Known about the structure:
This protein has 273 residues and is mainly α. It has one domain (2-266). The protein is built from nine helices and no strands. It has helices at residues 2-21, 28-49, 58-76, 91-121, 126-152, 166-199, 205-225, 240-245, 253-266.
Amino acid sequence: MRRWSLTVLSTSIVFVIVLFGLPADYSSGAYYGIVAVQVSLICLASWFLGAFAIRDAMERRMLAVAGVLLLAPWALFSFLAGVGPPGNQSAADNELRYLVLLLSAMSIAGGLIVLKEALRDAGEHFYSTLGLAATLVATPMYLIWASLMLQDFRGLYSFTSDEIPQWIQWIRDLTDVLLFFGGASYYLAALLFAAALLKVKWLGRKLSLFCVLTNAAALISLIFRGLQSPNPATLQWFEIPGFVFGIPAIPWIVPCIFGIALLHRAGIDPDPK
């Protein structure tokens, strides 16, 4: 059952990403059907994989809670099916997008904080403490960024590109800076937590190395890109990595891997009969 749960959970998250990234005009019935199926699959697969350990002893409970919080954003992204990347969406679609990102940032922060506590109990202090520090830097920036986009983005629809007031342009520039530093800090946090998970052997060596190298590459690409996100319509080939790693939800992919690994570990009975 747990092997099937792992397969279903991983597959469901991939489908969430695909359906979110592909713009589509679903009917109301199809949209709510897709959301219901995706959320149900993620919740049920998470439960049978290890989330049920929330009812168990403290050590397994901490792992289960951290895993659930780190996976919760991908269940929330189910509500963005068909929205696609920012473009010509309605104000309501963009409001939903930034609300989901705002709630997801809270969930990721909570998951990493709980993970830090679990790692402390397991005897790891160095990497997890640095990872927590990076998380505490990243989260307020993401929350401010998402809040500004949620409240102010709709105002841009009232103006043409030649009429945008200076204060709106200032907010645009500010949100780019917040997203840059927030994303960079999340990549650093994930890198450090991967090292911590390897140290306590909660993550395999190969997977830990993949997570460390991926986040290092993302961080370097973001730094070389600079504070401002490039225009996707005029991207040069060498700007693609910096653009991709600057997408708001991409820094949460490795924490999602952590979440799956933590649920898998939480579901292992330490005293099988």
